[in-house]
Structure formats: structure tokens, C-alpha cells
Design a protein that fits this description.
heterodimer; A: 260 residues; alpha/beta; 5-stranded mixed β-sheet; 10 strands; B: 219 residues; mainly alpha; 11 helices
Chain lengths: 260, 219
Amino acid sequence: MILRSAVLAVLAATAACGAPSVQSSPAAPAITVAAASDLRVAFEELGEQLHAETGLEVTFSFGSSGQLREQILNGAPFDVFASANVEFVDDVISAGCGDPATKTDYAFGRLVLWTPPGGVAPSTVADLADPSYRRIAIANPDHAPYGKAAEQALARAGVLDAVGGRLVFGENIADTLRIAQSGNADVGLVARSLTIGDGRDHALVPENLHDPLRQALVVTATGDRRAPARAFAAFVGSDAGRRIMARYGFALPGEREDPR
Amino acid sequence: MDDWFPLWLSVRVAFGATVIAGGAGIGFAYVLAKGRFRGRGLLEALVTLPIVLPPTVLGYYLLTNLGVNSPVGRAWEGLVGEPLVFTPTAAVIAASVSALPFVVRTARAAIEGVDGRLEAAARVAGHPEWRVAALVTLPVAARGLTAGVALGFARALGDFGATVMVAGNIPGRTQTMPIAVYDAVQAGDGSTARTGSLLLVGVAVVVLLAVTQLSARER
């Protein structure tokens, strides 16, 4: 932790990211949003709706929150950073790369136990101890918040040691789902938001098995693109934005009891 | 596939990288083939390194040496006004470095294959060494040099690992064809993944056939 603070202090001192962009005054307003992979389906719909309403062109770069944080700290020209956990947003702000006033919680992520059609669906995390689940896909816990939550859930269910050798890591949560969907894992601990479209029921991992996946965003834009970036952030938290997020299975801030 | 930007960007990046890696690669190949100097083995090892290094390691070094906190990155930002990393220019640099060894190795073999008697004749005629190279060595080796440059082009077109680290995955700005294929797989967009992959396989096969033709006629 001390080391991390020291690293961030150095990064802040060298002001890695506050570089002005040359793309000033584009013909049509356009921004780029760095977004956690669990947001892919929901944010694409959100971006289309915002475009239809305001003409704002939103391009998304999806990846694991940890990778996106590294890219922003290294000068990537993103205008909004929507992370799957709040810590990475805080890192970006401490490094001087994000406007603290724009930091907002916009959703809580949920994990489901996804099995391919025809597979034997576990009903609880503890069921994964069964050796018939030969490969269990989770996102990389080192840099993907859903991976960290999955690891916590396995630990709190008391089966982390039992499944340890059978875990396979996805680069991010979308990659993890892809590993399971392609049949290369018998089950995956993945984001509910990515599986809601397949019309099947998947066992929800109880919230008390992991720290809340408190998803936060921050505006990282400079110059001309600050205003459209703020408009995007505001749209995520608007009634229309919240309706879309809720439809993809996200729990929303203010609509739930204390996450713990 | 409804978005042709990645293909167009890939082609532009690969052409840019081919010019850089082709020029530098033929230069290195000539020096390695003809030069007798201390450190030649080391130079050869360094130039070949991108073939054997994991692309992520290459990408990591490029990111740390061209990034916003590096001297090169700062100098670039001072001149151009925006960071060098996460731009199409960064993609060109990554592709150039990845393509360089393919040019060097093929071109060097071609230069070493030139009949020494032809070069000796040019020297006897009184030409200085640079004219021997320009009039005899390089023209005679032309097919092999072209094959090397073509291989470099194919490699540059296909670069993924180093490019994604220094240029990122920004659709409409730095998302090249290989990265678009990766992104499409992540998004479960099978049709884009298939079309993109087929296009890249097609280009690679055409280039490799051309290389084989060029190498075969030399004998």
C-alpha cells in the first residue's frame, strides 16, 4: 500500500496524463470512453441512445479496469474512465489524470455462475468443489475487479484450495465469458451484465461472498472535450441511463441497501 | 464487417513501417554482411531480438521508452503537442521494430549471396566502396531485398502484441485489423472476427507466395 502510494505520488508529480489533445474543435462532438469489459453491451446501447438524442459520437475502448488504468496513467487519450471498481478511479485521480469533482458511483456489478447450454449448472459457489468441473474460468484477479471478486467468493465459500488447480484466467471479464462459451471451461464466474442477453438463468453469486463491485467513473478529458465527456457521465446517471443499466442486471446506487 | 477503418489503418501503418524497417533493415543487412568490426555479433543479436522476444516484452520496452514519462516521449510531446503513445504513430513504430529482423535476415542472406567476383571487378574498375554497393551489390541482390521487404510488410500488417501495448485499442484511432479481430472475439462478434481473420490470412498468403517466387528465381 505504501509502495503504491509512493508510485502514485511520483506519477502525480510527473503529471503523466494532463497533456492537451490536438484534436480540438472537431466538426461533430466526439469522445472516447475507456470502459470495463462488463459494460460492453450496456454501454454500447447507452452510447447509441445518447447519440440519437444529442448527436454526441461516443467510441468505447473496452478492457480490464486495471489495464485501462495503466493506459490512462501512460497518457492514453481517453475522456471518461468507467471502471469496474472504485479503487482504480481513485488511482487515476491521485495521479492527477481525472477530475475528482466528476467521480461518480454508477452501478454495482454482480457475478453469476455461467455454464454452457447442456452443462451441469452449479447452484452455489461451493458446488464448484465437485471435480466434474474440470476447468473453471475467472477473470485475472491481479487486474480485473470481477476476477478479484470471483477469487474472494471461492475463498469465502471455502473452496478456493479445492478448485485452485482448475482455475483458468481470462484477460478481462468478457474474455472469461468467451473461454466458457467456447467450451474451454465447464463453468465461468462472469458478469451478469454480459449474460443477461442469452435468456437463460444462471445462479447469482450472493453479494456477501465478495466485496462489493462498486463501479465508479471519472472524467479524464482535457480542453474542448471536457463538456461532452461530462454530458456522457451525466447520461449514465440519468433516469434513461439507469434504466439501461438496470436492464443489464446492474444494481444501482441509491436503490439498494448497504452493499455489505 | 461494417467498419473498414481497421483495415485501412493497418494498411497505412504497415506501409509506414515497411518504409522505416525496409530502409533501416537493408542498411543493417549491408553492414552485417560486409562489415568486419567489434560488436558485430552483438549488433546482429540486437537486431534479431524482436523475432524471439515475446511481443508483450517488446511492447513494454516501447511503452517505457516512448511513454509520457520517458525522455523521448517528453521531447515528442514538446514538439508535437500530444503524447506519442496511443497514437497511430506509435503503432507504426511498434510495427517497424517487429518487422525489422525479418528484413535484415532476408536481405543479409541476399547480399552475402552476391558473387564476390562481380564486386571485385567493380573495385578494379576504380569505383569506391559505396559505388560498388550502389552499382553491383544491391542491384544484384534486388530480388532478395524485395523478398525481405515483403516479409517485413507482412509482419508489420500482422503485429498485435507490441502494437496493443503502445497504441492501445481505440476504435477509429489506433485499432488496427489484428486488434479489431481480438476485440470482435471479445465482443462475441463472430462475423467480424471471421472476415478480419480471412483478410489477414489472404494478404499473408499472397505476400508469402510472392516471397517464394522472388527467392526461387534467384537460383
